[in-house]
Amino acid sequence: SVDIFVFNRVRRIMIDNTFWFFLQHNTIYAGIGSRETPQAICTLMQECGSKFAHLGWLLRSGGAQGADTSFELGVDQFVSKLETPPVNALKEIMLPWSLFENNTSPYYRPTKQAYKLAESFHPAWHKLTQGGKALQARNVHQILGLSCESPVDFVLCWTKDGKPSGGTGQALRIAMKHEIPIINLFDTSAVKLLTEFIRNHFQ
Prior knowledge:
Structural class: alpha/beta
Order of helices and strands: HHEHEHEHHEHEH
Strand content: 5-15%
Number of helices: 8
Number of strands: 5
């Protein structure tokens, strides 16, 4: 299946040290996942947020409890230690509406283009409420940016079954369509590889 193909491709990418390739570029990644992400994975995501910010990588996320807030907290912890924080604070938190989950990000109200793309990727768009549609349109910006034309370099996430499921599934379907590498921390081997990368690079 497509999701298995993507996972196998990402496993090879990680083994081939693609992370080291990203070290030489202005990397943008999506740090997203389920509200039900296990605490141990949230802790790892928070560490990734901090360490990746140290590299100057830009986080895109969505402000939801669980995975999203873990990545953002890690970024904020690093930025708070800087004497002169960058203007963008090394993050773009895409919200479906103002003050979603009490997040004060200025990036809210998805664009018409985001809604159009969201509809094309969602299997039951007509069944969604207006709020549900706004959440799905926000997912487009997480992967493709404010312009819907600036894709992330990779996605780091957790879903409860290791597949493009739940609210995160919309973002993953978009990433798969654009052949963006997806690292799903549901898989223990991905957790091991990511942990080794952090240990080897930051110790």
